[in-house]
Amino acid sequence: MKWLVLVVITIGFGLATPISTYNHYRLPTALRPIKYDLHVLTQLENADDFRFGGSVDIRIQVLENSNNITLHSKELTIDETATTLRQIGGEDLKDNCVSSTEVNPEHDFYILRTCRELLAGQVYKLSLRFSSPLSDRLEGYYRSSYVDPVANETRWISITHFEPASARLAFPCFDEPGYKAPFSITLRYHKKFTGLSNMPVKRTGKDDFLPDYVRTEFQESLPMSTYLVAYSVNDFSHKPSTLPNGTLFRTWARPNAIDQCGYAAEFGPKVLNYYEEFFGIKFPLPKVDQIAVPDFNIGAMENWGLVTYRETALLYSSEFSSLKDKQELANVVAHELAHQWFGNLVTMKWWTDLWLKEGVATYLATLCVENIHPEWRSLELESLANLLSIFRKDSLESSHPISRPVGKVSQISESFDAISYDKGSSVLRMMHLFLGEEAFRNGLKSYLNRYAYQNAEQDNLWESLTQAAHKIGSLPKDYDIKTIMDSWTLQTGYPVINVTRDYTSRTANLSQERYLLNSDVSRAHKGCWWVPLSYTSQEEKDFNNTAPKEWMECTETGKSVPKTIQDLPGPGQWVIFNNQLSTPYKVNYDAQNWKLLIETLNSEDYQSIHVVNRAQLIDDVLFFAWTGEQDYEIALQVISYLQRERELLPWKSAFDNLKLVNRIVRQTSSFEFFKSFLKKIITPVYEHLNGINDTFSAIPQQDQVLLKTMVVNWACQYQVGDCVPQALAYYRNWRAEANPDEKNPVPINVRSTVYCTSIKHGSDSDWEFLWTRYKKSNVAAEKRTILTALGCSREVWLLQRYLELIFDAKEGIRKGDSKWAFQAVAKTEVGFLLAKKYFMDNIGPISDYYNQLIKSISRLLEPIEKQIYTRKDYDEFKQFLADSKEFLEGSEEAIQQTLEIILTNVQWRERNYDQLTRAIKLLL
């Protein structure tokens, strides 16, 4: 999300509002809101003039004497002739009023100077009237649309998205998470629509002023932060669910997609029940609505009682959505409903601790989905996926701590990233595993009960968990959670533990340092982590024991305490540290230990190493080879064992790493050797899974379905076996169907691969056929699959045309989906250079198109940064970014990371390219 600062336009006094001298980024603390009465009129009938307007009465408690009221307002027209201020509590009621107003455009402050001083202990009511166009910019209060296929007409709806700081675009308010208050919301709208908000309807009736309009008043909410306020005016249908505890649960979508709500309507209540049981706290609201919004910029938003989703995250069609789509949907719903407790019931005091809700919800969602769908075996997969994500991002010097200072609004938006979500989740999982189930759950419950309807900081969570752990003895009395966990949340990065064994004395010396991808930077003095050490040996093979046998500790000055492990096995046996990757760190062993591990992996006994640790060894050794700490000969000997591997996790780990090498090597003359090596390791598993043939219904384990989907994708890219001809045959059969929008013979789980392969090897008419299917499809997941496949063409003119279509609002690609289409073009060999040039030539129009949604622009950088690998191109792109600052405002962190990633590619090419080529030739 991107923030463009505009002065509040005021009317009434006929004078320009002066700029304020108050310039701190946080609101003053002299006042706090104790109740909002919000009235909103929404006009959706006239497509030439979409507008909203209304009034807000804010009851304000004065904590310290003050001569002004400072709140947030952004791009709202405020009718200052209608502004009133009255004292409503206390014995000596005195009239008050507003004498003048000022704005601070940098921080969106609207400052009202009062005629009399506001007195501590008194309560005042401020009334403001406001209006604004109802824009399509996907933040604040905005409009979205869909096409009614029967009438062939565009239908309009309105929806809010306020997180992190966009409530101020919808009404004047104290727009910080620490200012919780109850809200009474009243919506006025045309009678053909429905009104929804956080709470159930209290009463509805005819509007007093506008014919054919209704006025709907909602029950007063519980105290909540402004970013959780939500309302919508729409003509949607809903699917009700039944809950045993009386909570009303409804799933809403446009009428022509209501048949895709079944899974979410069935799954959502199970999630709610799981959390009620897990926390021992009943869901505090009388209802939950979840709504699929056609235009939505993120995955979903946890507004209390009215959870909003992009359509791919809530709608599921058994005819069009893959198992992967279904699992993503389940994860998102479980994540958003976890927030109803972590985030909504207890809210972080300030965005510094965003992870307190996002990291926690990410982790709790993995537990919840595993509980409801154990047959998916998704807990290990999600945990590994989170770790792989952060091992990459957090090895950048330009990464940031989980809990980070936030000094302006654009920094809040940048915090919604893998560090807050995936690393936050990974350190919670670490803590869960070293504390045990009872202490972990009791600590969470105690925290929620203690801070319900209030705000908290991470120290409050640490305190609750320490008390719970000491009470049952799962943490030594001289250890506390704060000391341990601060080392993970307050400093950037993660450690690599270097294990050097002494095979004679059967000991190992352990040292730690921050792991960095940039090999030009010294790792010395880069931090110290409290590391719970679990480990096992070739003889013991006790991978299920994730409790720490020892700890690596830090001194009070942040220096690592040297560690020696005793009683290890002799020279013929390996040891593995970090059972089941229970803690986010990497492990590098001495040469002998790697040799022993390679022998086991490349033998019939490879499964004696736990599947998660097999994935760990692959990820670690490929990272170390990338940064030059291991030779590629060692790394390729480790991954050569994959010819035997039939489990999902090690393959995911390998593919995630090889994808990055592939994007550089495929632009070089050595690609033929790399391709031959990959064909050699992929062929056995491809054949084991019966290739691209539709055997999915016969596969009993769901994670094997995901494995087959992943392997087939790589097999077609590298022309393994019959993959390409079979894919083309599926596509031809689909094209031959009389009604291809109703009947699709391509197996659902390999559609993305079949479509992409057929567009890559196909004709112009194959592309046009798929583009037509996109325009006619009614299923968001299918539309996303098609959008991605259309970028697979190798025809320059088609890709150029597609790039132009992506950013043309009239062509039917929604703004929230455009990044997928651009990434699809930029990821391919042919498309990369075209997409890079298009991005550089059109940065101004692209910036205008996204209209301050800065997150979207940073998403376009992702595929570009992975494929630049020469110093010349690095310097050129660096200069371009420097020259384009005005269009990239708010993306400073993303730009820094982009340049660092490109630099590590350059380093890899200069250091490793020849070595990799030699290592591959030895194995072919």
UniProtKB/TrEMBL annotation:
Residues 1-16 form the signal peptide. Keywords: Aminopeptidase, Cell membrane, Disulfide bond, Glycoprotein, GPI-anchor, Hydrolase, Lipoprotein, Membrane, Metal-binding, Metalloprotease, Protease, Signal, Transmembrane, Transmembrane helix, Zinc. Binds 1 zinc ion per subunit. Residues 33-228 form the Aminopeptidase N-like N-terminal domain. It comes from the Eukaryota. Its main location: membrane. One of its GO terms (molecular function) is metalloaminopeptidase activity. Zn(2+) binds at H335, H339, E358. The record marks Y421 as: Transition state stabilizer. The active site is at E336 (proton acceptor). The keyword Glycoprotein applies. GO terms for biological process: peptide catabolic process; proteolysis. It is found in: Cell membrane; Membrane. CDD domains: M1_APN-Q_like. Its EC number is 3.4.11.-. PANTHER family: AMINOPEPTIDASE-RELATED (PTHR11533:SF253), PROTEASE M1 ZINC METALLOPROTEASE (PTHR11533). Belongs to the peptidase M1 family. This is Aminopeptidase. The lineage of its organism: Eukaryota, Metazoa, Ecdysozoa, Arthropoda, Hexapoda. The gene is Dsim\GD17873.
